[in-house]
Design a protein that fits this description.
2 domains, Arc Repressor Mutant, subunit A, mainly alpha, 16 helices, single chain
Length: 342
Amino acid sequence: MVKTLSIVSLIIAVQALFLVIHFFLKKKGDKLLNYLLGFLCLSFAIISIRTYNYFYPFIDLNSVVYRISNHVYWYVAPLLYLFILCYDRKPSSRKVFYHLAPYTLIIIIDLLFNKDGYYDDLVVFATIQMAIYLILAIRYSIRPNQKKSRQFFSWIIPSLYTFTLLIFFNFLYMVLDVFGVHLFSFKFGKSLFLLLSFPIFYIAYKEMNSENEFGIKPKKYKTSPLSNEKTEQYLRKIEKAMREEKLFLIKNLTLKTFSGLVGIQSRHVSQVINHDLGLSFSEYVLKYRLEEVKKNLLNPDNNNLTIHGIAQNSGFTSNSRFNYLFKKETGLTPTQFRNQKG
C-alpha cells in the first residue's frame, strides 16, 4: 500500500510540474489566468511531494522549505476562486493581493516564531477556508446573470461540486479521526488530500487543450486592445444607447449604423459586446427586442395592438422569425405569454 501511494503521489507531482511549466511559459491567452492556474498546479505539486515525504522521508521536517510547504493548503481555494473571476471579469491586482497576501503573512509569522505542533490544526482550518471559498465560487458561478458565460460555467460548476464533495469527505475523515474512528490507515489518510488534484487537473487540461471550445477566453482582439477603463466607458455608452435611447427599435439595425450613432468604432463595439457580454452584436440587439416585446405584451395599454404589431414596433421585421425566436427564448408562444397576465 505504501509503495502504491508513494508512486501515485510522484505521478501527481510530475503531472502538476508539467502543467506548471506549461502555464508559466504559455504566451497565448490571458497572462493572469495562466499564472493562476500555474500556481494552482504548483500547490498540488508541493502537496504531492510532501505526501511522498511521509512515506520516504528525504526533507528535514524542521527545514525552512518544509515549513513553508506546510502552508501551501492556504493558497489552493483562493487561486481557484480568482481563476473563475479572471474568466468572467479580470480581477484587479489589488484584489489578487487581498486574497493571497494574508496567507503569505501567516508563512512569515510561522518562520519567525517557529511554533511546533500546529500542523493538524492548520489542515483543519485550511479545509474550512477552502469550503468558504468554494461556496463563494459556486455562488458566483450559478448567479442568474451568467447567460453570457454559460459555456464556461456549464463545465466549471461540476468541477467545483466535485472539489466540494472531496473537501467534505476530507473534513469528515478528520472529524471521525479526532473521535477515534479510523476509516483508513494513517498513511492512507495523509494521502487523501491528493484526491483534490483531479478536478484541478481536469480544469487545467481543459484550458490547455482548448481554443475557446470550453469557454476560456483567449485574447481575441490582439490588434486593437482596449484598457479596462476604456472598455467600461464604451460599455456604459452602448448600454445607455440601448436602454435609454432604445436604438434597438430601429429596423434592420446594423453594427455599422449603430457604431455611427454611438460614436464608437465598429470593431470596438463588437469587441466590448463579445468580450464583456459574451454575445454577438445581433444577439445583443435581439435580447433587447425580445425584452421590449415581453414588456409590451403584458402592458394592458397595448390590448388594442396585435402581437405582430407589437413585434414590429419592437424592431422585428419578420413575423415568422419573431415567433420562432420568442418561443425559443421563453418556451411559450407570444399568445400564451400574453395570456399569462390574465
